[in-house]
Known about the structure:
single chain; 17 strands
Amino acid sequence: MVTLRVAIVGSGPAGIYTAEALIKQCPGPVEVDVLERLPTPYGLVRYGVAPDHTSIKSIAGYLRRVLESPGVRFLGGIELGSDVSVDDLMSCYDAVVYCTGAMVDRRLGIPGEDLPGSVAATDFVNWYCGHPDVPPDAFSLDVEEVVVIGVGNVAVDVARIMAKTAGELRDTDVPQDVLDRLAASRVRRIHMVGRRGPEHAKFTLKELRELGELPNADVLTVPGEVKVEPEDLAPLSRQIKGNVDVLRSWSERVPSGRPRRLDLRFWLRPVEILGDSRVEGVRLERTRLEGGRVVGTGEFETIPAGMVVRSVGYQSVPLAGVPFDAASMTVPNVAGKVSDRQYVSGWLKRGPTGVIGTNKSDAAETVRTLLAGTAPGTARRRLDDVLAARGVVPVTYADWLAIEAAEAGLAADLDRGERVKLVGRAAMLAACGRLSRPVS
Length: 440
């Protein structure tokens, strides 16, 4: 029986769940190569989940078992568009599945957004998660007030990490250089701002309650901003009602003089980030709902701040040689099919919606579509030969295990938890004996 050969571009949950679905659904033999531009797998599980959320990060154990399945290979350090092209992949595989997720933040589109001190939540999260694209000296936290724009789970993560002490994060995998900068942070007050009401906030009740239990910060709300009329609250879910109850209770708190303070604000939208050479504050307009839409009331407020973190959603970026819809920021597809022998899964397919587990059912749909429309035996070359001819040496799964071992060893040396992340490609490649390979 002819073996089906499939390339998956991206090794986050969407990519690895796609590999798992191929193994389970394919009626015949299948070979799956999971390509990743970084030296490390797991995508947002490694570089997006907050370091103090160890229960969510444990999903990596499940993904690990998929990568260790017979017929699955991890090929790290391979970037589509520079190391290989779409044409290369189409000549080497019977089908290609794109699973690169959503890698950048949506923009606010307001004056002052590009001032120094105005940063994307993606960059800040990548920083404290040790992503090799963001160096440990990218942030110094040398300001006393910060505004976080957005009231989703990512905004909650950012605010929580800023509000915690370095000691509370010591047993996590935060890189040591980043932990040192968090220890030196001058941040004393954090404002988290949402343009709608508390009943519209996207965070989960569990994350919200966790925020309110921070020992290092007073967490408060404004009474008038968290008031929801009974008739508006009645049809909402138990989760949302729980959120509103918690937020209401915080409006009755009296500051106890803890080292930091976190204010959750609602019904405010940013209209301008203020400052000359760097961020000095945010001008906000009071909002209300009109016909289901958020509109301004003409009432303004300014919050002084030396840093603004923009957390209003993620979006995907185009891949070289792959169709892309700039309006939806996705790859156009029908049930995962992009074109003949090309498929897509995850956020790149449907947009940044759902939780990590949502990618599993999404991947299963794409694989059903792929198996119904793809015949094995069309591949003519081997990717190994293409890469060898260009002098490109991929990071193997064994190399990744060596990186993991080095991170565990570093944690032991520093007397810090189970692992401490290595920072930068050079350190990772050194850990697996690959410094002879050119490092970008």
